[in-house]
């Protein structure tokens, strides 16, 4: 979803990347009907049917729990082993963890939150100048729909998706210039997320018994997308979702969920609301991590819910393999006891399949299973 997963700006469309930079400024006001914020501003009291989830998908009876919190402050010293073990355990048990003392300056996080909110507070006329192109799945910009299909159930979410890395994909001169600091803020945020993602990938590699650089190298020249998710207040939050259940399709995602709860994670078949921890960042594993680890670690279904009286902003940074990267289980993780569970896949092909079908929980990765009925080693 924008994660692709659910990720709105998935890196899946060649046409888009080859396109010339478009002049910002032309826009079509009819597109505003597709923005959730427009619905809310027009005062709807009942949500339109396209946003109403079937009963079994509605966010009811959810427990609140804290997912593991890992303190990264000691990773360059004697605590590395202990941190690596905690990361490994969190990956095995949850596929999700939060990091604190992660080294990302508080002011970089604050600026991203503030500038993100400031953008969504601007008039629709301005925001639509940056609208992502309807029907183009990998289009960068301001949007709302996850897929381009007409018959999809919709999420109670608008987003701004930014293609930040590698530099060859970055067109920062086309990013919003209001608030004035927006572009600089995103550049700094992207840089910090790159550094943090590299450190986390090293820890995850080591926790699998692989050389520190294994996962980083396995991703080729990775893509990074920063998605600013904006969830307006909703008159009937119990009927809908801000973001439908999905697993992220790349390697790892780093989510700044800020101070307002909304993220939920599926564990043992039950949805659990993740309690926000101040200044923490949430890390979760994507489908390609499941493949590379031969199922030792799994991508995990998650979703976001919305509130009746408060809006919510989150910022998801997706680290994905290069499109031409062939993903395959690490050979060190395959032996007699642990047969190969996943076929190799070209990331480009995985993304196209994802976007043509939609997330449907984490069904997409099933097509990569060597024997579809074999569950991975872990039983969550
Ligand atoms: C995502 C995502 C959760 C949230 O963008 O892929 O899972 O809380 N977001 O916004
Ligand atoms: Ni996600």
TrEMBL record:
This is Fe2OG dioxygenase domain-containing protein. Transmembrane segments: none annotated. Residues 222-321 form the Fe2OG dioxygenase domain. Residues 12-25 have a biased composition (Acidic residues). It holds the Pfam family 2OG-FeII_Oxy. Keywords: Iron, Metal-binding, Oxidoreductase. InterPro entries: DIOX_N (IPR026992), IPNS-like_FE2OG_OXY (IPR044861), IPNS-like_sf (IPR027443), Oxoglu/Fe-dep_dioxygenase_dom (IPR005123), Plant_2OG-oxidoreductases (IPR050295). The keyword Oxidoreductase applies. PANTHER family: OXOGLUTARATE/IRON-DEPENDENT DIOXYGENASE (PTHR47991). Belongs to the iron/ascorbate-dependent oxidoreductase family. GO terms for molecular function: metal ion binding; oxidoreductase activity. It comes from the Eukaryota. Residues 1-26 are annotated as: Disordered.
């Amino acid at each position: 979803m924008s994660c692709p997963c659910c990720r709105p700006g998935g890196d899946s469309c060649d046409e888009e990347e080859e396109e010339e930079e478009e002049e910002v400024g032309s826009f079509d006001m009819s597109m505003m009907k597709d923005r959730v914020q427009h619905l809310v501003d027009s005062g709807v009291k009942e949500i339109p049917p396209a946003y109403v989830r079937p009963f079994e998908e509605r966010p009811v009876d959810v427990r609140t729990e804290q997912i593991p919190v890992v303190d990264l402050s000691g990773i360059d010293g004697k605590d590395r082993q202990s941190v690596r073990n905690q990361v490994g355990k969190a990956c095995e048990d949850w596929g999700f963890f939060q990091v604190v003392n992660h080294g990302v300056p508080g002011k970089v996080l604050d600026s991203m939150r503030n500038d993100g909110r400031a953008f969504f507070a601007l008039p629709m006329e301005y925001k639509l100048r940056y609208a992502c192109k309807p029907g183009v799945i990998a289009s960068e910009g301001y949007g709302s729909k996850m897929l381009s299909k007409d018959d999809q159930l919709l999420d109670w979410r608008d987003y701004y998706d930014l293609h930040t890395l590698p530099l060859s994909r970055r067109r920062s001169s086309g990013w919003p210039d209001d608030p004035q600091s927006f572009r600089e803020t995103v550049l700094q945020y992207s840089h910090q997320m790159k550094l943090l993602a590299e450190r986390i990938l090293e820890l995850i590699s080591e926790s699998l018994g692989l050389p520190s650089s294994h996962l980083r190298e396995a991703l080729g020249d990775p893509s990074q997308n920063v998605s600013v998710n904006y969830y307006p207040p909703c008159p009937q939050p119990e009927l809908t979702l801000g973001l439908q259940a999905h697993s992220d399709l790349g390697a790892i995602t780093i989510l700044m969920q800020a101070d307002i709860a909304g993220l939920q994670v599926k564990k043992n078949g039950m949805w659990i609301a993740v309690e926000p921890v101040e200044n923490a960042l949430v890390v979760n594993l994507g489908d390609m991590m499941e493949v590379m680890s031969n199922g030792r670690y799994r991508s995990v279904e998650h979703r976001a819910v919305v509130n009746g009286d408060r809006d919510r902003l989150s910022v998801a940074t997706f680290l994905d393999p290069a499109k031409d990267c062939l993903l395959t289980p690490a050979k060190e993780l395959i032996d007699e006891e642990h047969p190969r569970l996943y076929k190799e896949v070209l990331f480009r092909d995985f993304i196209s399949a994802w976007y043509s079908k939609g997330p449907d929980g984490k069904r997409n990765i099933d097509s990569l299973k060597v024997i579809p009925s074999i569950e991975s080693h872990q039983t969550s």
